[in-house]
Amino acid sequence: MSGGDTDGSVTGGGASARLVRLLGGDEIAWLVDRARHRLEQGRSLTGTVTLTAATPAQRRAAEALLGRRAGAGSSLSVSLDEVDRVLRASGVTADGLREAVVRLRGPMRDLSGEKAARTAAWQRAFTRLDALVADRPELSGWRSWLESTGLVRRLAATAGEARILLDRLSAVLERLPSPGTPLGRLAAETCGDAHGLDEGRPLATLALSAARALSGLPYAGESGADARRSAWAAVGVHLDDLSSLVLCLGLPGDDRSPTGRMLSAARAAGEPCVLTLRQLRRHESPFPAGLVRICENPVVVAAAADELGASCPPLVCGGGRPSTAVWRLLDLLAAGGATFAYHGDFDWGGIAIASSVHERLGGFQPWRFDAASYQAVPSSAALSGQARPTPWDPGLTVAMERRGVRVEEELVLAELIADLTPRPMVR
């Protein structure tokens, strides 16, 4: 047998030479490697190890070590306990197989200890984030999702990198929701990098999933710029002043600003008007409008424009999750003394949207958006998702849970347009 890799302690004659002769060759290296692997894993050197498809040379090496025939067949099994006894009894090593492995292969790694240290380091990486989640139970499901998907470990190569990433994520989450905040400003103020939340960055991936969680949306969510914009808008953050939009019809404008004149012209023409956040930020005076109706879907605005034109009363479309531009317009209307009536989809996502509007405005009048209205609409579409409270009509939640169907806004479009139709004056 040829000599194997050894350290300086197994050179020379006597016991060291016998150790090399018995366990230092290539033909018996598989056994030494198996023993080393067990030691590094913190396991005992007991039991049997087996080599499948052993060569004749490997079988002879095992027989020379044990001093007996090593069985027949293609596989070769060796008892580690027997090897330990042979080494001790022959005086080759006083501490048996363990000492032999160390002398032949050098100091052992503590793989179990290293694993425990890595586990502890990863746990420490989540310290700040877990403290934040403990105070915000609405994020608990998202935190479990992070753990089950291994997303953080895919985005950060080491626990040290993960800790930096998660500390920055915690700083972002401490600021959410953050109404009216540009994304770049949020990134600059929380992690010192105005591009830290740009699409494709690891921090942006994590922060966007958390924003979805805060808004009651699926954590992974849809891909694409529109879905990303909507998810950030749901926690008050806008990507830029031009991409955040609001659709409206029949809003009274004024002649004091370009935005006011646009609204006046659109109202006179009976046409819907799309305003950007930039325009609404530059318009500082309130909009007096009386009763303003809010719908969830653009189809209501389109139908109202087609059928009512310039006679349509003030109508604002939330467009699903309200954008920052929607919130800005509603704030300007509220400052002008407007009152609000709301209608949306009768599903749990629609209820979540309505709840955010209800909270932001300090309440609204339900516009065919109560338990009685829900019960009156035929539908067989299954309702799914997490039930949510309806503070404007607590009975609505109960009715939806019992009936178990969803009712989309389009199903009551005719009734909504009828409500918007001006009544003839009675003389």
Strands, helices and their partners?
Elements lengths: L13 H10 L5 H12 L7 E4 L4 H11 L9 E4 H10 L6 H10 L5 H15 L1 H9 L4 H10 L1 H5 L3 H15 L7 E2 H9 L10 H13 L10 H9 L3 E2 L6 E5 L8 H12 L3 E4 H6 L8 E5 L2 H10 L7 E3 L6 H12 L3 E4 L5 H14 L3 E2 L4 H6 L17 H10 L9 H8 L7
Q: Care to count the β-strands? A: 10
CATH class designation of the largest domain: Alpha Beta
What do we call the CATH topology of the largest domain? Dna Topoisomerase Vi A Subunit, Chain: A, domain 2
Low-confidence segments, ≥5 residues, pLDDT <50?
A: 1-12
Give the count of helical stretches: 21
Tally of distinct domains:
3
What proportion of the residues is helical, as a percent range? Answer: 40-55%
- Main sheet record: 6 strands, mixed
Strand order of the largest sheet: 6-5-8-7-9-10
Mean pLDDT: 89
Radius of gyration equals 36 Å
Helix/strand/pairing class, anyone?
alpha/beta
CATH architecture of the largest domain: 3-Layer(aba) Sandwich
Strand fraction equals 5-15%
Cα shape: elongated
Distance between the termini: 118 Å
Write structural notes for this entry.
This protein is of the alpha/beta class. It has 3 domains: 8-109, no CATH class; 113-238, no CATH class; 245-420, Dna Topoisomerase Vi A Subunit, Chain: A, domain 2 (3-Layer(aba) Sandwich), CATH 3.40.1360.10. It is built from 21 helices and 10 strands. The protein has helices at residues 14-23, 29-40, 56-66, 80-89, 96-105, 111-125, 127-135, 140-149, 151-155, 159-173, 183-191, 202-214, 225-233, 258-269, 277-282, 298-307, 324-335, 348-361, 371-376, 394-403, 413-420; strands at 48-51, 76-79, 181-182, 237-238, 245-249, 273-276, 291-295, 315-317, 339-342, 365-366. It has a 6-stranded mixed beta sheet, with helices on both faces. Strands 1-2 form a two-stranded antiparallel sheet. Helix 2 crosses helix 5 (96-105) and helix 4 packs across helix 5 (96-105). The chain starts with 13 loop residues before the first helix and ends in a 7-residue tail after the last helix. 35% of the residues are buried.
